[in-house]
Amino acid sequence: MITSYSLFQNIFSRPSTRPIFNNIHISSSLLNNASRIASIKNIKYGELDNSGSSALVSNDDFANNIPHENVFTRNKNTKKNIKKLLKNETCTVIGYGSQGRAQALNLRSYGINVCVGVREKGNSWNLAKKDKFVPDSSLFSIPAAISRSSIIMLLVSDAGLIDLFPKIRYKLHNKTIYFSHGFGPVYKQHTGIHFDGLTNVDVIMVAPKGSGKSVRDLYKKGKGINSSYAVLRDDSKLAKDKALSLAFAIGSPYVYETTFENEANSDLTGERSILMGGIAGLFKAQYDVLRENGHSPSEAFNETVEEALQSLYPLVNEKGMEFMFSNCSSTAQRGAIDWSKRFEDLNKPLIQEIYENVKSGREAERIIRCNSDVNYRENLNSELDKINKQEIWLVGKEIRKLRS
């Protein structure tokens, strides 16, 4: 069951336990202020709540064995109440890579006080200046940015954060410490990222389910990338409020609860399997089989990659797997359904192995060890170059030129 919380509904001075309407129950857990409370709703797909926000499914729409979870959505008062909650806060985005840049720009567009902290005169500094962050006003060195801000958004790479965190840790008293990935704190025995001895701190996470480029591009289109959020430490008793506010301010249309550990485990597992590693391996395997059996490069690529990305996967994204099957030929339907179970049976043990490697910390150890190698960037570029020169992707470059 999913419970949809219509965020920041502007209902004043009602007891937190009193139902307002038959299917609305009030919870004060979202904002610890009696004048700003959230409603919890169980309503059907496609209905709208009285604030105009789309609701997610109720338990009636799910099978009984699907567990309850909380999902938060926006309504017409969300932006106003977020600005009230964060009006005395200043966010500093540490790092200006893909995710840091996107979140900094989205927060600024949303009207949140935000500055950027990066190495002075470096490439990121120059890019932030190009994006109209102003030195000594909204662009600072990392120590200066932290000193003038209350919410510290640590959006450098995992490897970069391992090096940076010990240098800034003493500056994090009385701050909200924000992550977009659970890696550092979860694998603290390998990363050294912990909060012991820090006083009056909140530790929160907002993890967009997409690249920084997607976070920014969709925001500019009036859309957004959904995010998960988590609270690791809540000294102020407002950590959850801050996390949800920032999640919506960076453009998330809905936000679901997780933990730092679950986010790290699921994220790393997905990257190694179906999201990146697994799909790369399956693409390559099928392309090679077709080529070894006499099919042309164009045919092998189109039947492996092009049709998947341009035709079939968008159908899954639109309305689900059944929708894709229903919009294909009977020949495709029968074969896909018959073989899908075989793929599931073959791949589930491999994905379980990946998950166990992630949860045990073995993947974290490897990541840190590789990134610590002085030749890592050179070695990585060599690996990527080999992938880029594989026939399947050389053919892909030519196919993309023909799309127009």
Share of residues in helices: 40-55%
Tally of structural domains: 3
| Topology, number of strands | 12
| Major sheet characteristics | 12 strands, mixed
Using the coordinates above, name the CATH class of the largest domain: Alpha Beta
Please identify which CATH superfamily of the largest domain we are dealing with.
NAD(P)-binding Rossmann-like Domain
- Determine the structural class based on helices, strands and strand pairing: alpha/beta
Q: And the CATH topology of the largest domain? A: Rossmann fold
List unreliable stretches of 5+ residues: 1-62
Structure description:
The protein is of the alpha/beta class. The chain folds into three domains: 1-79, no CATH class; 88-259, 3-Layer(aba) Sandwich (Rossmann fold); 273-402, no CATH class. The chain is built from 17 helices and twelve strands. A twelve-stranded mixed sheet has the order 2-3-1-4-12-11-10-9-8-5-6-7. β11 (227-234), α9 (239-249) and β12 (254-257) form a beta-alpha-beta unit. α10 packs across α14, α11 packs antiparallel against α12 (297-319) and α12 crosses α17 (391-402). The longest helix is centred in the last third of the chain and has 31 residues, at 330-360. It is globular and about 65 Å long. Mean pLDDT is 85; it is low at 1-62.
Summarize the structure.
By secondary structure, the chain is α/β, with parallel strands linked by helices. The protein has helices spanning 78-86, 98-110, 123-130, 142-147, 158-168, 183-186, 188-191, 212-220, 239-249, 260-272, 277-292, 297-319, 321-326, 330-360, 362-372, 376-388, 391-402, and strands at residues 2-6, 24-27, 38-41, 69-73, 91-94, 114-117, 139-140, 151-154, 176-179, 202-208, 227-234, 254-257. It has 3 domains: 1-79, no CATH class; 88-259, Rossmann fold (3-Layer(aba) Sandwich), CATH 3.40.50; 273-402, no CATH class.
